[in-house]
Specification:
This is Methyltransferase. Its EC number is 2.1.1.-. It is a single-pass membrane protein; Single-pass type II membrane protein. By secondary structure, the protein is α/β, with parallel strands linked by helices. Among the domains are: 45 residues, no CATH class; 171 residues, Rossmann fold (3-Layer(aba) Sandwich), CATH 3.40.50; 192 residues, Vaccinia Virus protein VP39 (Rossmann fold, 3-Layer(aba) Sandwich). Helix content is 22%, strand content 21%. It has a seven-stranded mixed sheet, sandwiched between helices. Helix 11 crosses helix 12. The longest helix is centred in the last third of the chain and has 22 residues. The radius of gyration is 24 Å and the shape is globular. The chain starts with 11 loop residues before the first strand and ends in a 6-residue tail after the last strand.
């Protein structure tokens, strides 16, 4: 049984910072960017390299203001970040060195910022997920017959006010692609999972490492042979072209998703916290969430996935007249595939699944031994013949997910085909999705124009990040964009051909752009940043946040958002926060409270612009 500990209250200390930012300090043994924590050096050559200002040539603030994007001070007027027409201007990046000068304005000097004196959490919190380990909330449940215990039950806001250190024997993670086949045991020391899975050839302990033989999927075949078998059963599956975004339910140790990367398919693995499978997946560098099919909708929009896979996932699909499979149908794209392989071949289990699939108007397109494949129709002419009480009321929004209960009714696909007719990958990444039409925006330009401008902007900025910040591509794998908008940051990384994946988070406090993100061939999730995120501590290498804290500042204490960022950030990991000048200095004070090393940089808006980039790195320390 896991230890659950009552969080202690925060104590607040107000510290006065003189916001004079002087760059050009020579690296030395005592310099804050050349440091060793608990005997491990955190890439001091990366941290001490000169930091730069990203400048986009051919674009002055005046030109951007004429597009209705920047004001005369260089600040963004709205959430829409855009540049001019592709035919008119060619973009180039010039990284200008600003290491030998400093930027100071009267607004930023002699300011008082609130800081916090955070205690260190108890050792039993090393794997603490606040909304899933809330003993008080769980104890108040009236029922657990449908898996309610594994759903979110958040403590009251602000109740977690301590820092979770790395376990005593924690090491900086093995890097991708090597991490696909081996990880450090002491980073995820769950002996029970090893005992449960070792007999199935999924996972093996080898001295101080956990190794993942490629015999994961309930079969003597290796994973790549299993994937080949599926494509032989279904030649139209088109890995990496027609099929780009997949969901693996009850993911085991996520070898299915790990091997699909080789075929240019990004797979999001989900599993409840009881077996820690998601933690193993993330340590390997495979996208994962701690999530469960129980009583609430999954946090994905309708028509999100091109392929949904369930192999031995121990789900009672027949429960409540198939309500869980109805939820799978909601997030499965029109014309997409559901692949199912039960733990044991039992005729009655197969008949039940086939009857449920028929109820959803799915077509069975393959059955071979232990594997069955169904295809969702491109339209719901089949469902229209059903009685009206089977269908959802038109007022039910299939894209609303935050604390929304599962629906037993069936949602008709849009008559206009939105979400179903997409280009193949990689063309879909840069093609404006038709579901842009569903987003409410105050834009003088056409939505497709805004989309293309956003894409070009982030292509340039990401190139500038990689060149100007000295980020070593091999040091990063698990990335989160905390306010993803259209997924432009993630798309920019794809353009740069870095071997990273991005969890695109769309805050519920803004527009729901998540359908567009999935239509582009990317992954993401809805979230309220006034509550903790459902992942383990130490799971992301880089957190990227543009305008997030300003957006949430009126809703909750941003100190708790920074504390949550620290919880999910790996030691040695980086944080990039782009905010208004005032907010950047507030966040810097909070970043120092959680022991991060910080540096403030200019953006393309210049030294007198209204925003700056805060670059932080988390040191390794043990508790």
């Amino acid at each position: 049984m896991e230890m659950r500990i009552r969080p202690r209250q925060c104590s607040v200390v107000v510290i006065t910072f003189v916001a004079l930012f002087l760059v050009g300090t020579k690296p030395s043994a005592s310099h804050p960017y050349a440091y060793i924590e608990n005997g491990e050096r955190l890439r001091s050559e990366t941290i001490t390299r000169k930091l730069s200002r990203i400048h986009i040539t051919h674009f002055t603030n005046g030109k951007l203001a004429s597009l209705g994007i920047l004001d005369t001070n260089g600040g963004f007027l709205s959430d829409i970040v855009a540049f001019g027409d592709e035919a008119e201007v060619d973009l180039d990046v010039d990284v200008g060195d600003v290491s030998e000068r400093f930027s100071l304005s009267s607004l930023e000097s002699n300011r008082t910022f609130k800081s916090y004196n955070f205690d260190v959490c108890a050792h039993g919190w090393k794997d603490y997920i606040p909304c899933l380990d809330n003993a008080g909330g769980i104890s108040e449940l009236k029922s657990n017959t449908r898996g309610e215990i594994w759903e979110r039950h958040c403590p009251r806001r602000g109740s977690m006010c301590c820092l979770i250190g790395a376990p005593l024997n924690y090491k900086l993670p093995i890097r991708w692609p090597k991490s696909s086949s081996e990880i450090w045991y002491n980073n995820v020391p769950h002996a029970q999972l090893l005992a449960d899975k070792s007999g199935e050839n999924w996972i093996k302990l080898d001295k101080d490492r956990i190794r993942f033989p490629s015999g994961d999927i309930q079969s003597e075949n290796r994973v790549h042979q299993y994937l080949d078998h599926i494509s032989e059963m279904l030649p139209t599956i088109g890995y990496g072209r027609r099929t780009r975004v997949a969901l693996d339910i009850g993911c085991g140790v996520a070898s299915f998703g790990a091997y699909l990367f080789d075929r240019d398919v990004i797979t999001l693995s989900i599993a409840p916290k009881d077996g820690h499978e998601s933690q193993f997946a993330l340590e390997r560098g495979v996208p994962a969430l701690v999530a469960v099919l129980a009583t609430r909708r999954l946090l994905f929009p309708s028509q999100a996935f091109d392929l949904i896979h369930c192999s031995g996932c121990q789900i009672n699909w027949n429960r409540d007249d198939g309500i869980l499979l109805i939820e799978v149908d909601r997030v499965l794209r029109a014309g997409a595939y559901f692949v199912w392989s039960p733990q044991e071949h039992q005729e009655n289990v197969w008949r039940e699944m086939e009857d449920l699939a028929k109820h959803l108007c799915w077509e069975q397109v393959g059955k071979d031994g232990q594997v069955g494949i169904w295809r969702k129709p491109l339209n719901h002419s089949c469902l229209k013949s059903r009685s009206s009480d089977v269908l959802c009321d038109p007022s039910v929004n299939p894209d609303e997910t935050w604390y929304v209960s599962l629906q037993s009714c069936l949602t008709l696909l849009p008559e206009n085909g939105l979400g179903g007719d997409l280009p193949e990958w990689p063309a879909r990444l840069s093609t404006p999705p038709r579901r842009l039409e569903t987003i409410v925006m105050d834009a003088t330009q056409a939505r497709s124009y805004v989309f293309k401008s956003d894409q070009r902007y982030w292509h340039v900025v990401v190139e500038g990040y990689l060149r100007g910040l000295g980020l070593h591509k091999e040091d990063f794998r698990n990335i989160m964009d905390m306010r993803a908008m259209y997924g432009g940051f993630a798309a920019g990384l794809v353009d740069q051909k870095v071997d990273w994946w991005v969890m695109n988070v769309v805050p519920i406090s803004g527009q729901n752009t998540l359908p567009v993100i999935f239509d582009r061939g990317l992954i993401g999730v809805s979230h309220d940043w006034c509550e903790p995120f459902d992942t383990y501590p130490r799971t992301y290498d880089l957190l990227h946040a543009v305008g997030l804290l300003t957006q949430e500042d009126k809703r909750c204490n941003i100190a708790h958002i920074v504390l949550e960022m620290d919880r999910i950030l790996r030691p040695g990991g980086w944080v990039l926060v782009r905010e208004t000048n005032d907010m950047v200095y507030r966040v810097e004070a909070l970043a120092k409270s959680v022991r991060w090393k910080t540096r403030i940089l200019e953006t393309e808006s210049g030294p007198f612009g209204k925003d700056k980039l805060l670059s932080c790195q988390k040191p390794l320390w043990h508790s």
